[in-house]
What we know:
The chain is mainly beta and 127 residues long. 0% of the residues lie in helices and 44% in strands. Strands 2, 4, 5, 6, 9, 10 and 11 form a seven-stranded mixed sheet that branches. The radius of gyration is 13 Å and the shape is globular.
Amino acid sequence: xxxxxESGGGxxxxxxxxxxxCGDSGRSIxxxxxxWFRQAPGKEREFVAALSRTGVVSDYRDSVKGRxxxxxxxxxxxxxxxxxxxxxxDTAVYYCAADAxxxxxxxxxxxxxxxxxxxxxxxxxxx
Length: 127
């Protein structure tokens, strides 16, 4: 059973940076498509970024392109989301998720394709 745990959230000022981490107790995540989603207060959860199994193909929502980077470590047991130039509209609970059954090509942007979810970590950006 995959149990994802996120860390690294916190409060920052506009323009600041945070790096979120996600792992499964040190176990490899290389067999999964991995994604980050977020949910702001009063809003639906939305896609942020995803990474293919190979780690080669990534995708981002338009509003974070050029500011956020999804990656894994060399051991392929930790997923990261580097967030730079943060804006107040980035304030949300951020969730990592794993897709066990997706294709080996472009990662899915859709929540219903992801099988395992973390508990979320809060990111607050203040102006």
